[in-house]
Design a protein that fits this description.
alpha+beta; 34% strand
């Protein structure tokens, strides 16, 4: 039984709750009597978190009688009397659009206009009033590509207007609303190019056509939001290695007007250089709040719009994860962040925008039985085989385990990695690691190239891990494993894990050096690279060509064949392998882990290490939606791991 930190929007505080014995969350709100709150909660299900609490969506009731239930994009209407949300009941990430009346409790699934077929969407948001909805839909390859405006959705004859459509299979689309709620945006983007349209949300313009912020240009990415009469843009224009912060007047086709945001001394606050990476900007009344990375660590900065001063909000630990909580109101004197590390459970902290030493802990996650003083965490760097690159790793273990390792006694080590799409694996807190740590294991995250931990250069060509330098991901991981196997552990005590594209990483790593690991976990692994990437009819495939390359081109085909796990299985003893898949997975089809399992067994019939696969018949890419079932599935993974390392009885 727990709750999330209440966040303000209009006249309410919004938060979610979970209850012991119930699988799904409930969405709650309470009247906002002041700009702060005091929680006097006795820890029971019956007790409200805040006075006047009401539950406006109970996902447990929605999930009754269903094997799977995932809810996303819950949006409260302008009148605060309705909610719109998306629901997936199979795990295939095909969502139906539903609207609930909070006064009557009526909950309806919307239909396509002129049809009895349920309306399937990717995302939803409200317009300027309760009669207007915006939603995006997918094509046959499950790619979000269209944005619609629905008027009079409650009537028997609602009208849909197609506002934007992206026909290029390389581009994925999304929509969002500016924080001041004056504009809606439609973004079409690949990994290398983006283009954004906007529509004002006022009576004069809401029926007009969407206009371009700036036309797409080769190798130019940008993101935009509106506030204080200006566009604020994150972009790599002019080939900067990281995103820079720019501004321009609010107008169509504004590219010629983009200018760097500067401090009081006339220096750009984010110039796109390698020094620090910029990921997002939140526009408030007096400040910009910026999120990015510096030194491989997530960072938050504030920029005063009047004094033009940029400040970084710092924290005492060497490695941690920090990010903004939801901010729906521009007029605020504080910013709220979520903070945790591999040692510190998550907490919500409210920080003054004018004096960041003024901090109030709003909530700290309770972890029963956990004693932070028993563990230690480190940020380290290991050299890669290229002789130039240092690979960051994050480490957590019990103190007595690290003492043994430092004294020369080999201990079991579990190595986790991902390394694709520019996504970062953070040094965060995870209660599910504790059963491993408490059995004497060291848990290591290898921040390999292909991720975004060290900025976009860590991901992009020529020295990152994309296209024809993708092997850097696998080489980095193996290099880290080899150093670990000669210091803290040995191959008989070293295990590894990755999911999805991280499963590709594990498959390539065990092919490169099968004797390096005792056990490997491959969750929904992308291991049949070339056949999948060649067939553009498979959902999500075409958009992946700007990540891996198009194997219909000879140079990419030949390079992929050199690392595709299923095509590089060797004859010899492999580690024990545990592979998982989801029957309804639209991202990595269930036959990929099945084929790799068969390939490993066929090539090595005399291998005495088990090669096992578990297929979930009621889930998709992200495992079970039921939180208790999710933990049971994870327990299977760790049970296999601990058994193979002879730690099950520890």
């Amino acid at each position: 039984t727990d709750f999330t930190t209440p966040r303000p929007k209009g006249e309410f505080w919004y938060y979610t709750r979970t209850f012991k014995g119930f699988s799904y969350k409930t969405y709650c709100r309470a009247p906002k009597a002041s700009e702060s709150f005091d929680i006097d909660w006795d820890g029971t299900k019956e007790s409200p978190i805040l006075p006047g609490e009401e539950t406006y969506l109970d996902v447990n009731k929605l999930a009754e009688g269903k094997d799977y239930c995932s809810v996303g994009g819950v949006k409260v209407s302008p009148s605060k009397k309705l909610i719109a949300y998306a629901a997936d009941f199979s795990g295939d990430e095909i969502y139906q659009l539903r609207v609930k009346n909070l006064e009557t409790g009526e909950d309806v699934a919307l239909k396509e206009t002129g049809s009895d077929k349920l309306l399937e969407i990717d995302s939803v948001m409200w317009g300027k009033d309760d009669d207007e909805l915006f939603f995006t839909t997918n094509d046959e390859q499950h790619r979000p590509c269209r944005m619609y405006q629905r008027k009079n959705w409650q009537s028997d004859e609602p009208t849909d207007r197609l506002l934007a459509e992206e026909l290029d299979d390389l581009f994925w689309c999304s929509m969002y609303k500016s924080i001041d709620e004056k504009f809606v945006f439609f973004e079409a983007s690949s990994k290398e190019v983006s283009e954004i349209f906007f529509l004002p949300l006022d009576d004069e313009h809401t029926a007009s056509e969407m206009k371009l912020v700036a036309a797409r240009r080769p190798k130019v990415l940008y993101e935009v939001d509106a506030g204080h009469g200006s566009w604020f843009l994150l972009t790599n224009v002019d080939k900067s290695p990281n995103m820079k912060l720019m501004t321009a007047p609010i107008q169509a086709d504004s590219a010629a007007e983009w200018k760097l945001v500067e401090d009081a001394d006339g220096n750009p606050i984010f110039d796109g250089s390698l020094a620090k990476a910029l990921d997002s900007v939140t526009i408030l009344k007096t400040h910009l709040v910026l999120q990015g990375r510096e030194g491989g660590i997530p960072r938050v900065w504030t920029f005063c719009l009047t004094s033009k001063e940029l400040k970084r909000i710092d924290f005492p630990e060497d490695a941690y994860d920090v990010g903004l909580l939801a901010h729906s109101e521009m007029d605020t004197e504080t910013v709220a962040v979520s903070y945790d590390s591999m040692l510190t459970p998550p907490s919500s902290i409210e920080i003054s925008l004018t004096d960041d030493s003024q901090r109030t802990v709003l909530k700290t996650k309770e972890v029963p039985g956990y004693n932070k003083e028993l563990y230690e965490s480190h940020r380290m760097e290991f050299p890669s085989r290229d002789g130039e690159t240092m690979i960051p790793i994050s480490v957590v273990a019990r103190k007595e385990t690290m003492e043994k390792a430092r004294a020369g006694t080999h201990v079991p080590v579990h190595l986790y990695g991902y390394g694709s799409y520019g996504a970062s694996i953070e040094a965060d807190f995870d209660t599910t690691r504790l059963p491993l740590l408490d059995r004497g294991m060291i848990y290591v995250i290898a921040h390999v190239r292909g991720g975004g931990e060290m900025g976009r250069a860590w991901y992009e060509e020529p020295k990152g891990a994309k296209y024809l330098c993708k092997k850097n991901t696998f080489n980095d991981f193996v290099d880290v494993a080899r150093i670990l196997s000669k210091t803290w552990t040995k191959p008989e005590m070293l295990s590894c894990e990755g999911r999805s594209a991280g499963g590709l990483l594990i498959g390539a790593a065990i092919n490169q050096d099968p004797a390096l690991f005792r056990c490997a976990i491959l969750g929904v692994p992308f291991v049949d690279v070339v056949p999948t990437m060649t067939d553009s009819t498979i959902p999500l495939t075409s958009g992946e060509w700007v990540e891996w390359g198009n194997p219909n081109e000879e140079r990419f085909h030949n390079y992929m064949m050199e690392y595709s796990p299923i095509n590089n299985v060797k004859i010899g003893r492999y580690p024990a392998c545990w592979l998982t898949g989801g029957l309804h997975d639209p991202r990595v089809a269930y036959w990929e882990p099945a084929k790799f399992t068969a390939a490993l067994r066929h090539a090595n019939p005399d291998n005495d290490n088990p090669i096992c696969m578990k297929l979930d018949l009621s889930a998709g890419h992200f495992s079970a939606s039921d939180r208790y079932k999710y933990y049971r599935e994870l327990a299977y993974d760790y049970s296999f791991l601990l058994d193979q390392l002879n730690l099950a009885d520890c």
